[in-house]
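Record pair follows.
FIRST:
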Amino acid sequence: MKKIAPLFVLMASVLWGSMGIVTRYVADIGFTTRQTAAVRICSAAAVLILFLLITDHRKLKIEKQDLKWFLGTGLGSLFINNLAYAETVQRASLSVAVVLLYTAPFFVMIMSILFFKEKLTLQKVVALLLSFAGCVLVVGLSGANAGSNGAVTLLIGLCAGFGYSLYSIFGKVLVGKYDSLTVTVYTFIFSSIGTLIICQPASMAQRIVENSSKMPLVIIGSVVTLALPYVSYSIGLKYMESSKASIISSFEVVAASLFGVALYHETLDAYNMIGIICVVSALILLQVNFHKNT
């Protein structure tokens, strides 16, 4: 399983990369930014709960002492990440928001060394820098700005990256004890509670009723681009180091760009292509075993 663990993380990054398709569809219905996040997270949570109730309700059982870790993945990671990222997008350009979001692997690497005693190797450092540089080139920062209050925007954007990184830390603790579906479902349950508090649920419910014919597609899209990638990432995280998993997940930026080209006729310039090569090179580098006896 260890050999194919990176493939689960890579699959998760591709599914996350397709998230923009569903997000655009939900936003076009008329939901606010926070409501869009709430609809997607709550839809995914409902489907996951129903699935476990039908297939194996025992996976819904958790121990009280582990609630703090589930609160960490749900509120500390998924909720904070979504909230801070949405706020950053409103304050600055999308490219700035994406680059700040992908400071996450730096946080993961530092925390993995401190808490999991992972080794800091030259291979990881080079892969991390390659993937981050690649993300910057893929999204492009020419003409981008951090808005009128750059310091506050920077701080909020870093919070998005930090929140994103926490799943690789708290999730690593949980996947050693629980099934990946259990970890994912409780992550979404706690995150749903957070999003419902801040999204004006009454007006959101009214809009859902008014657009009930469109909701099945929203639910399916939320499961495919949000629930499934978290399950897949959790499986991969169980069998590999958090720092490596976080770096591999940066392929999400490449996947999102390729989906944009395929579905929305967006174009890639030379810098974008170099960025894609950098990210892919980082993924390949992580799979090379320099200590293998020949």
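SECOND:
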Amino acid sequence: MKPWRFIYSGLCDPYTNMAIDEAILLNYSSGRVLPTLRIYGWNPPAFSIGYSQKAEEVLDLERCKKEGVLFVRRITGGGIIFHHLEVTYSLTCFKQEINAFGSVKDGFKIICSFLLNTYKKLGLIPHFAIDIKPPALGKSPFCFSSYEDYDIMVGGKKIGGNAQKRKRDLIFQHGSIPLELKTDIFMPYLRNKIDGLEEKVCSLTEALGREITFEELADTIKKSFKETFSIDLIEQGLIPEEEKLALKLKKEKYATDDWNLKR
């Protein structure tokens, strides 16, 4: 299996994060770069909403604007997420480069196996939701408070969330792993309040019973990815074409009301 590129982006604003992910996807699909695993964080903290969600239905837009809370629309589906104290990953590849054959659901199971191994490396006992059949959480506009078959559970609670976009054999997936969940910070900006969230979801700090740094989790994800898929990761930055495209996408797409509001 050919090597992958590894990019560590550090902390970026929400528009830059989504623009970089798409710039990688477009350059990879054009054959300019290796399949890529990227790890990044968010500064300032911000919401991302799923592609099909309407911002005005899930967020108090007036309060967000008044208090300077940013939000961005993703190219993937799923529910709204507040990105704060967390590590986010994204991966871009063709399905044969990660052996993610079969249905989309099969692909989720294969790809998310590196997350299972990440949690195991940290001493946790994770399971796919389908394997333990926890009580139904019901549908929710908030990503972390509902689950799919191959979401990951620790101690009976969902941890993190993942979303995927496919075009034929091309796969783009990204996911969020919360180091801490400070519900009092983001809950006031949601249009509909969520009851009992602490009983449904957990952060990594809660699951471990200790604090964990961004760097420790990022390094564990990287090691787990290499071992799970027997892949060599080559540390590189964005190529000039990606940097130029990311700036263009940020300015003309992700930082605009046309993209974030008028869908």
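COMMENT: The CA atoms of residues 29 and 83 lie 27 Å apart.
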